[in-house]
Amino acid sequence: MAGMSPFFRSRTQRDHLVTLIRKPGCHLCDDAQAVIEKVCGDLGVRWEQKDITQDPDLHAQYWEQIPVVLVDGRQHTFWRVNEDRLRKALTG
Length: 92
Prior knowledge:
Elements: E1 17-22, H1 27-43, E2 46-51, H2 56-62, E3 68-71, E4 74-78, H3 83-91
Parallel strand pairs: 1-2
Antiparallel strand pairs: 1-3, 3-4
Protein name: Glutaredoxin family protein
Pfam family, one: Glrx-like
Organism: Streptomyces thermospinosisporus
């Protein structure tokens, strides 16, 4: 879509950002990371992780839900990550 304003350009998978909010020693967090690595790797989507023990705001907001997965800054899921559901959120 050459010449089209970036405002009107449709989002591509590569435009997404997945954030895993986790804590050290959390087996559910490790499981969530494995799913995120697989899905994001397959789709070429960027992802990051944040340590809840290093951020008081994240700790206050998400402590009882970790691991938490955000897609583009919005909460997608918590505790367990469903591979198909995450893939759909990033491709739909």
